[in-house]
Structure prediction request, 221 residues.
Amino acid sequence: NAGVTQTPKFQVLKTGQSMTLQCAQDMNHNSMYWYRQDPGMGLRLIYYSASEGTTDKGEVPNGYNVSRLNKREFSLRLESAAPSQTSVYFCASRSGSTNEKLFFGSGTQLSVL
Amino acid sequence: SQELEQSPQSLIVQEGKNLTINCTSSKTLYGLYWYKQKYGEGLIFLMMLQKGGEEKSHEKITAKLDEKKQQSSLHITASQPSHAGIYLCGADGQKVTFGTGTKLQVIP
Prediction:
């Protein structure tokens, strides 16, 4: 099993450009999450989806949109990238909504110039 | 919202030494995760604690959740270079929030 797959692994954008980060899991998990990681800041939750068809804001949702396309896929879109969005982005999933560990993807390193 | 504070922020230890990382929550913890991240890589699950006073071990790493369920400590015995990385605690809930991380370096 591949687990949680994120694409792309690296991306460089210019300010104002848009892009979508893709995440897919093959574990039949219900809940999926998007985090960003900045130096010294740990992981901060951007958006999450407790089940197919639902999404909710996390700690730092501004400047992002998400789509839970189906049970497997959860995408993160930057409509107009800003340098402050330079970060490493992680997608995660788990079977239920609580009491179960999260499985993480390997991350997307995004630079906005 | 629930906030997790980790201390220390960074730690440099000599190989073979013991060390402790602390995670303090602003609210009661109903579940607490510990993850390890190697530099530039993804996150590896270490363990989850749910009950006050619970203690779990994974190889030479032991973590405990205090009775009041607002603080957890992670202890590494006889550290090795393979223990180097960033350690993150996370509070369970519908939104899993994480601490700021502790960067550990182990000098051979």
